[in-house]
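Q: what does this look like with CU-O-CU linkage bound?
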Amino acid sequence: MTAKISRRALFNAGLAGAGAIAAAGVGVPLGINWRGNPSAGVLLMSDHPLPRAYQRPLVTPPVLRPVRADGATDYYEVTQQVAQAEMLPGVRTPIWGYNGIFPGPTVISHSGRRTVVRHRNELPVPTVVHLHGGRTPPEFDGYPIDLVLPAGARDDSAWGGLASQMHGEINQGERTYEYPLDQRAATLWYHDHRMGFTGASVWRGLAGFHIVHDDEEAALGLPSGDHELPLMIADRAFAADGSMRYPALDPSMVEPGVQDRWVSGVMGDAILVNGVIWPYREVPAVRHRLRLLNASNSRRYRLALDPPPPGGGGLVQIGSDGGLLDRPIRHDAIEIAPAERFDVVVDFGRYRPGQTVDVVNELGSGGTRQVLRFRVGGRVADDSRIPAVLSSSETLAPGSVVAHREFRFRTGKVGDMTGWLTNGKPFDPHRFDAMPKLDTTETWTLQSDFHHPIHLHLVHFKVLARDGKAPTEFDAGWKDTVDLRPNEEVQLITRFSGYRGRYVLHCHNLEHEDMAMMSNFLTI
Ligand code: C2O
Ligand code: CU
Ligand code: CU
């Protein structure tokens, strides 16, 4: 009971109005291995035996069909529901799914065409829907205390009542989100974002792809159709009864947080791609576009092709979080932190027909090294290309910078427990840590103690420097999430365009996010 009460203090700071929060830098959370843990979280083992790798085919989530459309808008409906999935052979695993599936259905939009999604909540807990990477007006961005209550619930008192006490928006049973999608072609994703419970809800299945196309991309001749695969990579652990294990402090999801051992993040021992544990895919020996998304709560990956194609450089990156790169970048391996997207082309024509090619995680070992197997089939005609110039995106002139801000992301005491702080403070929906002026450019310095994949809503940014030196080969293009490593300082530049209002920035290690590593900015 004490643990519960103190956890609650995580988010009560703003309410109480008291400065009950101790400064940062006190104590190191249990379970953190500060050095030599590039995967970032702490392993949670399955009690249920895991299947052999590469026995089940990859599935791609179904594309959601609009319920209607008019001149400028497509309208969709999604029901969030409890369902069962066969993740372990012959076993039914309860999930929470958009339309009852994990990943949720893929929404496909054309840039500039308004997409309206009505979500109905038939789950036992309140939810919030956020479109990650979307340039969305604040009222539709899925602010963490703007709840969609379970159908039939009248208020959030059964869940502690915190959101209504904090003047969050309380929607009964359903909520319509409107997305202008006035932005470049890119791989976006939607997921739950309820304050304090994002980790637990995404773990149970509340995540899906939302892909935006545009004319610039369509003119390039990139691999498409069956040769374009969205790949949602996520790790999970299973209990003896086949349900997904998650070390929530309060399984009824009234009090946020995870057990101390997992404060630095929860990692499973099974790697899933599109909801299937270690799947395989038969592919013809032609170019394929792989939209890689790390939807794991805390696990970082270093993805590589095993074996690499003759000559190397098998992962040709064409896009990042915010859409196409200006020019392709050839990688032997890609480091991907939670919420990051890498859009890559792999030419299976560089392999012999009949060969198997694994996507492996070089940061894992045993099962967590395995991700996905391709079985290369025969050669077929391939008229796809990777143009040398993909896009010519805007550049932000350093001379136009009007403000500079600094954010420090550190562990620290929140009340009497360990949590995660931004500039020494836990999340408070009513405190603004930055008020950028609309349509101005700023540089931000982000500084870390541990691995923190930092995500900004509303904007995309470019990484200018790491520890004063050049960014890494994984920082290219427009980003909305940047992979801060332990004791690192990252500088980024962004332009706050789009909409006025309140947005969050936060760590996308979902356990850090749930344990208060979130802050607000207000565009004015
Ligand atoms: Cu992917 Cu604020 O979230
Ligand atoms: Cu986001
Ligand atoms: Cu973090």
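The two ends are 42 Å apart (CA to CA). The domain at 7-27+394-523 is CATH 2.60.40.420 (Immunoglobulin-like).
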